[in-house]
Amino acid sequence: MMTNFFQERNGTLYAEEVALPDIAERFGTPCYVYSRAALTAAAHEFHTALDGTVDLVCYAVKANGNLAILNLLARLGCGFDIVSGGELARVLAAGGDPAKTVFSGVGKTVAEMEAALHAGILCFNVESAAELSALAATAARLGKVAPVSFRVNPDVDAKTHPYISTGLKENKFGVSFDEAQMLYRQAAALSSLRVTGVDMHIGSQITELAPYREAAEKLLQLVKALEADGIVLEHIDIGGGLGVRYRDEQPIPLTVFAQMLRDVFAGRSERLFMEPGRRLVADAGVLLTRILYLKPGASKNFAVVDAAMTDLIRPVLYEAWHPVWAVTKNAAGNEKIWDIVGPVCESSDFLAQARPLALREGDLLAVGVAGAYAMVMGSNYNARPRACEVMVDGDEITMIRAREKIEKLWESEQILQK
Ligand SMILES: *Cc1c(COP(=O)(O)O)cnc(C)c1O
User: One of 58, 78, 345, 388 is an active-site residue; which one?
Assistant: First the structure.
């Protein structure tokens, strides 16, 4: 159970060498706790399994953009995949290398394009003809040449939750294969653009290899067709989306993924890029929360905790299942079936449903596999300040984001003068 980095010892849950109750005592709850060793191990696993196959692992910042995490991943050799000017600024503030940063997203503004051109990013993953025109004009105005790759939509079913499936032709993402060739010709003819690659991203939390293989094969056909047209690419970016185990999923082993890439792209000289988000950070974090009240009832038992959908929205938004662990074993308690709910005034405010646990008021719970798409999706609904985040490294604890101050919430608001 649990992971190598969050383990039970003598009835208490630890993050590396630190007992979670010590963190709750010192920093309060709700609190995100990350393991530096887990992050390091995940980055090493990518670099080892994909060594000689994938040249650049661009961490998808949107999975968890804390500066400490970005900085650590940069030091571990990662580039970045960004989807906004804000994420670009985060990468730069964290000491990330713009020359290893790719810019994805369907709605890049001119201001964001300008910032990325000034920073000197590796490439723009362009998602429409209209965006291409805007980018060409912006680069020309600045006297710059924008490196361009098109995100193509391979129209494959990634067999994941519909909200996180992106590679079907009815999704808003990417350009179709039919369109792509014409757009490449257009881009190649413009002096403010330099065609450098091709990109795809077919969805998230994918646990089947077949959709990746199918999409990669389609991508290769396009690369060959472009080559026949005189357009030679420098890189092929196969996107992110690799799934993790929340409950009983079987993630694709990275070595198997690497072998698939070697099979499909055998004999090709383009550099391969990847854009993993979740797989690099999900296992490295837990959300620590305290039980405020127990409300056993006739039809349901509720454990009301101090974390809410404002801290972790995945269960509500994606019907996601996260493991919930009692931080301290309650030997005396009887197990009951509990819904773990937050204080927010919404019936959908739950972190977990129907969990057999022995609980007492005041107990701590840890919501597992909460390193990705968790803190980063936090909100201030119900005027709730966002949780603090700490990084554990062996027996050391560093606060990497302070708990938000209540006054900060209305700092930029203004009362009418009359
Ligand atoms: C979200 C996203 C990723 C990362 O997805 P994961 O499922 O977290 O690996 C990669 N590339 C693009 C373009 C994305 O939007």
Answer: 345
